[in-house]
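Run: sequence + pyridoxal-5'-phosphate -> complex structure.
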Amino acid sequence: MRFKTKAIHEGSGADPLTGAVSVPVYMTSTYAQERPGITKGYEYSRTGNPTRKALEEAIASLEECRYGTAYSSGMGAITTLLLTLKSGDEIIATSDLYGGTYRLFEKVFANFNIKTTYVDSLDDLQKIKISKNLKLLWMETPSNPLLKIYDIKAFADIAHEHDAMLVVDNTFATPYFQQPVKYGADVIVHSTTKYISGHSDVIGGAVCTDNEELDQKIRFMQNAAGAICSPMDAFLTLRGLKTLAIRMEAHQGNSMAIAHLLSTYNNVKKIYYPGTVSSPYWDVVKEQMSGYGGMVSFELKGDASVVEKFLSKLEIFQIAESLGGIESLVEVPAVMTHASIPKKIRESRGITDTLIRLSCGIEDTKDLLEDIRRGLESC
Ligand SMILES: Cc1ncc(COP(=O)(O)O)c(C=O)c1O
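>> structure
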């Protein structure tokens, strides 16, 4: 089956009991056993639930992985994966990261003696001395919020030379535009809150892998720590997933048109968008991605007051954290999604007070262009 067909049919199928074509919401905490220990495959919903299982199978299949697990949030997914490490283990992560992931590395797992070192590029990674305690290389590609692209295959090769694993946070690209296992990634994580569910009505996360031994460890931890995706959230996410392909095409059409519009304005200092030949990452983009997604970041000339003016003129883009939903959102990473990164570190990484991140929805392109034009002409 090809992607669009899989997105609709994988994990679903007529319900054996009623023939329902849509996976029912199994809203149950426990399952009656015929005799103690004799079950129909489910014993307790933290351990397993048919609606969650359908979602887990669907996401894993779209990522070309054999195994998937679903969680109550993207952070729940990442936490569960990190819980498979032990004190003394080390992580190397690319520096442009979602602020919450950075906070989890620095403020939570650092307390358990799991150290994270940051690199900005493949060059940086090749220059540093890699510890024998390295367990995970971690990347977001495209990254949040600067949309940097990292070479999955080159990072995976380095991870494997050191007996470590490469984790790719594939939230921005989704498996529709990028399937990291094809380039050697060992683990894929998602905030399914974003494009996968796609309608800004659910918080969720997922971990996918093709490595059976690792999946066993993750599944053990999913049950032990308990940050599971609820049946209702699994249902909503599964419903969103079915239209992922057509939504991603529409998001991308709008992001391309907006990136182009931004390039025609003098008051735009810098545009971060992977989908143009002028992108510094174009060679890697062409190699590992089949599209560029729906995100565009840019910096305005001037100071924070210019950003205020720009935002005050927008009528369609709503000021909100999150991304990947059908409606267009705008945010200022320095004071919103990335505020948990100390100012000095944030600024050294390029997250300035005038950086704006757009999540281009699937509204009419002309309306979105008019909205952005309105904002830019006011400042
Ligand atoms: C790239 C990325 N990974 C992980 C997360 C965390 O996901 P959640 O908010 O679903 O916990 C986010 C949230 O914005 C994100 O952007």
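>> summary
DSSP finds 14 helices and twelve strands in the chain. The first strand starts at residue 67 and ends at 71.
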